[in-house]
Design a protein that fits this description.
Belongs to the ABC transporter superfamily. The chain is of the alpha/beta class. The protein is built from seven helices and ten strands. Bound molecules: adenosine-5'-triphosphate.
């Protein structure tokens, strides 16, 4: 049984900036993004998430939408357990896989092959299958001999091929996706999209942030609209919304 429950969840980022002194005088909202606030201890912070209440259950395919800085990526990282709430609670049941900027856990000095072993441990893969996993990743990423070279010698698209191939090798109960649909060159994009569709089918709960209405309407059955760190709309959708 997989589920995610958030109760009155808030997340503030403390920020040190040259303009901090003047910002501290006010509670301000500047066009886009979370609210910039201050407290009596004279700390400036960005209120990235405010009083988020959510209950996600099996079958939910949620599209997170909202302007730049609305809090989509922050919410995904809270769901992933990367960020901890400043207030409120989160409860999660089920294994989690993230498709974020695809950089976490990589050592650029190590070869692609050694990085696969690192990531396999990070993602809790069954290490008894490591050799066959590496073969599958080699096949999907089409990196060939580059897998024996340090990752620092890869182009950004090649790094992405490697990381994507590892992160999507196995399905998980909960799948969190942050704007990764445009990854790689056009040939890779077609295969990446098919792979994402496969692991989405097997995941019990999917939450994805995207600015593309087309992607959200083709993959999601719910949308959550965020504004300045708050959930302002949650509704079921079928196709276009
Ligand atoms: N590491 C950080 N330190 C300070 N503030 C941050 C940090 N990360 C995000 N923020 C702030 O939190 C708010 C939410 O940012 P977030 O990245 O979650 O927005 P988003 O909806 O994903 O935006 P976009 O569509 O531009 O990717 C913004 O006001 C942003 O400035």
């Amino acid at each position: 049984m997989s589920k995610i429950t958030l109760n009155n969840l808030c997340l503030d980022f403390p920020v040190v900036s040259e303009t901090g002194a003047s910002l501290r005088k006010h509670l301000v909202r500047i066009g886009t993004g979370g609210i910039i606030a201050s407290d009596h201890a004279k700390t400036t912070y960005v209120k990235a998430l405010t009083d988020v209440n959510l209950s996600l259950v099996e079958g939910d395919r949620v599209g997170l939408i909202g302007h730049n800085g609305a809090g989509k990526s922050t919410l995904l990282r809270v769901l992933a357990g990367i960020y901890h709430p400043s207030a409120g609670t989160i409860r999660r049941e089920g294994s989690i896989r993230t498709l974020f900027e695809l950089g976490v856990g990589v050592d650029h000095e190590l070869s692609g092959r050694k990085n696969i072993s690192r990531l396999a441990r990070l993602y809790n893969f069954n290490l008894a299958n490591l050799d066959s996993d590496i073969n599958k990743i080699e096949e999907f990423s089409e990196l060939g001999g580059y897998l024996d070279l340090p990752v620092r010698s890869y182009s950004s698209g090649m790094q992405l091929r490697l990381l994507f191939a590892v992160a999507t090798l196995y399905p998980s109960d909960i799948l969190l996706i942050d704007e990764v649909f445009g990854v790689g060159d056009s040939g890779f994009q077609v295969r990446a999209k098919a792979r994402i569709e496969d692991i989405m089918r097997e995941a019990k709960i999917v939450v994805m942030a995207s600015h593309s209405k087309e992607i959200i309407s083709s993959f999601c059955n719910k949308i959550i609209r965020m504004e300045a760190g708050r959930v302002v709309e949650l509704k079921n959708i079928k196709g276009d919304f």
